[in-house]
Amino acid sequence: MATIEVTETSPNSFSVTVHGAQTTSHQVNVKPDYAQPLLSASQTVSELVTASFKFLLDRESNTSILRSFDLSVIERYFPEYPQAVQRYLK
Fold it and tell me: Which of 21, 27, 60, 87 is most buried, taking the most CB atoms under 10 A from its CB?
């Protein structure tokens, strides 16, 4: 089981380290207008990034995840992402 560390590096930008069989680092940008509909009032964008990586790790290895991307790109590869990520936010 991989562990995920998320650090906000600047507004709307996050550094993510995934510790698995291999450790990988990722830069993720999150546009507020994309994140807002995915979050409830009590959830943070950092929690959304963590949930998004859990979603991705259920589908591919951390070494296959893009090193730098905008969060909205996930939906291009996995159309079910906006609905499915809700399960990971609970």
Answer: 27
DSSP letter string, 13-56: EEEEEEESSSEEEEEEE--HHHHGGG--TT--HHHHHHHHHHHH
Tens of pLDDT along 26-39? 999 999 999 999 99
Sign of CA dihedral 57, 60, 63, 66: negative
Other CB atoms closer than 10 Å to residue 18's CB: what's the count?
21
61 burial level (CB within 10 Å; 0-12, 13-18, 19+): middle
Mean pLDDT of 13-24: 96
Largest CA distance in the chain: 35
> Amino acid letter at 82?
P
85 DSSP assignment = H
